[in-house]
Amino acid sequence: IANNDGDALKGLLDDFHFADVAELLQELNHEEATYLVKLLDSEITSEALMELDDDFRERILDNLSPSEIADELDEMDTDDAADIIAELDDHIQKQVIDHIEDEEHAADIVDLLRYDEDTAGGLMAKELVRVKETWTVAGCVREMRRQAENVTRVHSIYVTDRHGKLKGRLSLKDLLTAPERAHISDIYIPKVDYVNVHTDAEDVARIMQKYDLEAIPVIDDEGILVGRITIDDIVDFIKEEAEKDYQMAAGISQDVEADDSIFKLTKARLPWLMIGMLGGLGAASIITGFQSMMTTFPKIIIFVPLIQATAGNVGVQSSAIVVQGLANDTIKGNIITRLLKESLLALVNGIAIALVVLVISHFLFFTSYLESISIGIAIITVIILAALIGTFIPILLDKRGIDPAVATGPFITTSNDIFGILTYFLIAKLILGF
Amino acid sequence: IANNDGDALKGLLDDFHFADVAELLQELNHEEATYLVKLLDSEITSEALMELDDDFRERILDNLSPSEIADELDEMDTDDAADIIAELDDHIQKQVIDHIEDEEHAADIVDLLRYDEDTAGGLMAKELVRVKETWTVAGCVREMRRQAENVTRVHSIYVTDRHGKLKGRLSLKDLLTAPERAHISDIYIPKVDYVNVHTDAEDVARIMQKYDLEAIPVIDDEGILVGRITIDDIVDFIKEEAEKDYQMAAGISQDVEADDSIFKLTKARLPWLMIGMLGGLGAASIITGFQSMMTTFPKIIIFVPLIQATAGNVGVQSSAIVVQGLANDTIKGNIITRLLKESLLALVNGIAIALVVLVISHFLFFTSYLESISIGIAIITVIILAALIGTFIPILLDKRGIDPAVATGPFITTSNDIFGILTYFLIAKLILGF
């Protein structure tokens, strides 16, 4: 397509939805994509750019001049513009900001850059409809029409006092039905949920979900209304968090996709494989330590993979439930009760598994009574131990302020492998006495 | 608190936000909770009920009479009410519906019950603001005020033709600024995204995310506007899906929480542990089959846990990336290219791991050159094999219409364990020739 017929292409694509343009761009190589971005209206491309993969967008932006980037940012909401600028190199950042035409817009963007990405300040946008409590309904409607120009969608109308302090919100319905000369102070709803600029993004997501909010106002430490966060940003945030946790549980340490380069994929995957390898070598030392057993009780060793698999699976199950509970803030009560419950659950599962293994090992692998009993007791012990490790480590990490999700996947599997195999041999040694 | 002083309690709680009431209910036992639900205004409790766990809500509803349930449903949006009714027993369903005062509301609910939970029809609500294209602006504003009574939040105004067919949407801004006598047909926006009642819920979520929509209209097969889906329902859906996938990957087969009963947790966890156990027994048979090696090359067996752990980890990594890619619809291109890329990636990772193991096994475990080489080659082969299995199975399941997420976790780990160990012994046999 991209063979120079600019006008025809522009005519064709200017009617497209930005999300479709984004999909199209993603299919092209970055030179063709850059060409298209330069060609099309900033109104469409600015939104399309936001939908692209970070890497791909960066490559396109590298090929645009600071003033071209500024044109795109002029069309964006302040929160998106700030995200884009944060991705640029320091020296380009300043140039781009200088090129933004609307000075108020530029100032808002610079202001947003101050906040940490993972806080309410980092998520919020400056675009919102605000009215003062002293205004009349008629003045308010006039003022709102003016403000609404800059706001893509009116979620809520926020009411502030003279100094800009958040006082409440206004329902559009009440505004439409109130007499023209009434004052806002008579009709606004003084109850409004809000968050502070420093509130953690995760907490913002939790609050918005809990109260089913579509937008939430953000205030600074003085109570001044400084921005608002809308649900679509939260949807993206929730999805990203879920994907990060999922990948973490699978032993992938960075946000990668199936189509990333082999180098990037290796960087995300190899470290965890190395941890698993170290665990495997640890297990090898343990077996070497119990080498004498190989000759006296050769049957004990054939169940090592069973013990290992069971320990790993139980650990992952336990940790997944705890990590999810921590994320949703549904883990209550004290840690001792929780560990006791987990032990009881593990005991139930352990006995069930042990019984099956006992029968099968005895009749199919012809283990002696003592060997069978060693294996059975070992399985129960290992399952309980694995469940406790899987439950305890995430809670401990969470208490220390570390994301408990790192404790899932290979980390828990590897530590459980080693503990499991060691426990198994110790119990076998105790019972069989080699 | 709940010691009979009903009036004081009611005065205290009627000012609470419904989400806080829900949290409070969840802390109580179900008798106390039922007492509170009967005591408080349906306006609050109806919303609070929606926030409760399914099980807990069911136990409260069991203690309410059909007419008491109907009172709650009267206050709910049609989509929530339909979800609640669907949870009740068949014979109670009819009684409850008969008790609903607002007949139109009741008819809407019954209508929604027809749709499958996982389709747009199952997610949508009947509450929406609709205007006909033939109306004037003034008539429209009047009519809208009336309709808005039943709609908690006005997301969008939808425009239909005389027969109710969806024609487009109306922006509130345009409506406010248009002359009173203009016709809707002159000012409405004819471009509007919509979904069919039978559209898969996952696709609805994808569309709403892609186009950053806060509400989407739903039409039936004739194009008639029948309902709308709001983003908050989609947020819940996305979260539930992410949690389900996460649990599936961790080998937990039902939606359970840390606070569920031991029986329920066992039911969700034991089956996967059994699968892992069968895998372990399979591995035991394989080792038994190569028993002669234990005496001639005892060092080979100590690396079985290493092989097993590596195979499992690689399989989980590969499958997680593919499953996530399939869920986000970012897996493109044909399957052969993907498998080739995965093999290449596995080769890189495999060589890295093998080199480290080669050195360590030789110097710390004193393996012979031939043994070291067997181990190294086996590791590379096993990693490639595990990566291919991890990539191929989810794609295959997806093509067959099965949720690929079931292929993650214990399933992939177990099959990789067995294949890994078998491959390891076969390669060792080939090279060492015992």
Residue windows where pLDDT falls under 50 for at least 5 positions of chain A: none
The biggest beta sheet of chain A, please?
3 strands, mixed
How does the overall form of chain A come out from the CA principal axes? elongated
CATH architecture of the largest domain in chain A: Orthogonal Bundle
Give structural notes.
The structure is a homodimer of 434-residue chains. By secondary structure, chain A is mainly α. The first copy, chain A, folds into three domains: 6-118, MgtE N-terminal fold, CATH 1.25.60; 129-239, CBS-domain (Roll); 262-432, Tetracycline Repressor, domain 2, CATH 1.10.357.20. Helix content of chain A is 67%, strand content 6%. Chain A is built from 22 helices and six strands. The longest helix of chain A has 31 residues, at 369-399. Chain A is elongated, with a radius of gyration of 30 Å. Chain A starts with 5 loop residues before the first helix and ends with a helix.
Task: Give the key terms.
homodimer; 434 residues; mainly alpha; MgtE N-terminal fold; CBS-domain; 3 domains; 3-stranded mixed β-sheet; 6% strand; elongated
Gist?
The structure is a homodimer of 434-residue chains. Chain A has 434 residues and is mainly α.
SSE blueprint and pairings:
2 copies of one chain form a homodimer.
Chain A (H helix, E strand, L loop, with lengths): L5 H8 L4 H10 L2 H10 L2 H10 L2 H9 L3 H10 L2 H10 L2 H10 L3 H11 L6 H4 L5 E4 L4 H12 L8 E4 L5 E5 L1 H6 L6 H4 L7 E2 L4 H10 L4 E5 L5 E6 H19 L12 H28 L2 H5 L1 H4 L2 H25 L6 H30 L4 H31 L10 H23 L2
Parallel strand pairs in A: 1-2, 4-5
Antiparallel strand pairs in A: 2-3, 5-6
Helix pairs in contact in A: 2-4, 3-5, 4-6, 6-8, 7-9, 14-15, 16-22, 19-21, 19-22, 20-21, 21-22
